[in-house]
Amino acid sequence: MAEDKPKSEGMVSDVHKRIKAAFEAFDYESNNTVDVREISTIIYSLGCFPNQEDLHAFIAKVEEDHTGYIHLDKFLPAMTKVLLEHKFPPIPEDVLLQAFEVLDKEKKGYLEPEELTKYMTQEGEPFTQEEMDEMLTALADPETNVIYYKDFICQLTIDPDM
Asked: What per-residue confidence (pLDDT) applies to 85?
């Protein structure tokens, strides 16, 4: 039993490091505070994929008095709990692949930026053009200017025990 304690403390320490690193990437003023609009990106980068309702509830729990900012002191314990309890699980890799294959009607193994933009701005919860521009900058292969979705899926899926 005593052996379990150091292991769990080490796991919590590793989780804290991951959360802090993700948070600090968006703490532009180095004051342990991020804009509330960055929280979903931070959460996604940690391998968690809440639905919009869960995301809004999480933000409401950690936001500083509706100021539009979230402090690390509130975010860290809440996000640690989310990660340790495996809340907001990622979509399985095979399901993501099936979704992209449905969009890739010609079975090319990639999507053109225009195709992805059309789907992402006109279906479901639509993305803004600004969000699409950001996404395409990160996803499109710099040489061919297409999105190789198998590579993208590898970036989205992570080991939940990491």
From this structure: 92
71 beta partners: 33
Q: What is the pLDDT of residue 158?
A: 53
What are the helix (H) ranges across 85-140? 93-103, 113-122, 129-139
| Residue type at 141 in one-letter notation | D
Q: Which residues of the chain have pLDDT under 50?
A: 1-6, 160-162
Distance CA 49, CA 41 (A): 10
According to the model, what pLDDT value does residue 2 have? Answer: 45
Q: What are phi and psi of 147, to 5 degrees?
A: -105, 110
Q: Is 94 within 8 Å of 83 (Cβ atoms)? A: no
According to DSSP, the residues that pair with 145 across neighbouring strands are none
Q: Which residues pair with 35 in a beta bridge?
A: 69
First to last CA, the chain: 23
**Residue type for position 113:** P
Stretch (H or E) spanning 31 = none
The rounded Cα 14 to chain-centroid distance in angstroms is: 18
pLDDT (0 to 100) of residue 157: 61
